[in-house]
């Protein structure tokens, strides 16, 4: 099944905020590198998605210089880098058209803000008919309100599992051994 890895918002914009000190996995970019390499080795497409808020003057405004991937992640020539302005990676980009043109019917999602941009992309992708793999330890978030980052991640897994996505670990995604979801 043709698969694409979507690396969502693993960008300096988050690291430039004071709240970065509370991120659930500050080494996320390093942890994702083996998955990116495994996806490439399998011939899967890798899409890099960055969140932007042009004209705001904040850390997501491209003119501030923070809208770039966290090291050591680097796109290869030909790997699309898409810039979105909403929570999901589909609505404000041509991601869907690119996936369809490449014949991709499975997406694997990873990135920053487990419950926001990564979860929202998983939900929209499912609604659009893609088989979605949500790599739970390939995401990171921060506490919000009375919830810890761990509680937010647990909640996201609970609401996505078998409804919108198949939940995978990084190890499963790297090995690509998780069975396909029945339709």
Strand order of the largest sheet: 3-2-1-4-5-6
Kindly identify the CATH topology. Rossmann fold
**Total beta-strand segments:** 6
Overall domain count = 1
Given the structure, what is the number of helices? Answer: 6
Relevant CATH superfamily: Isochorismatase-like
| Overall CATH architecture | 3-Layer(aba) Sandwich
Helix content: 25-40%
Strand content is: 15-25%
Mean pLDDT value: 96
Describe this structure in words.
This protein is α/β, with parallel strands linked by helices and 183 residues long. It has a single domain, classed as Rossmann fold (3-Layer(aba) Sandwich). The protein has six helices and six strands, in the order E-H-H-E-E-H-E-H-E-H-E-H. It has helices at residues 12-15, 28-41, 95-101, 114-127, 149-160, 170-175, and strands at residues 3-8, 45-51, 81-84, 106-112, 131-140, 166-168. A six-stranded parallel β-sheet has the order 3-2-1-4-5-6, with helices on both faces. Strand 4 (106-112), helix 4 (114-127) and strand 5 form a beta-alpha-beta unit. Helix 4 (114-127) runs parallel beside helix 5. The longest helix has 14 residues, at 28-41. The protein is globular, with a radius of gyration of 15 Å. The model has no long low-confidence stretch (mean pLDDT 96).
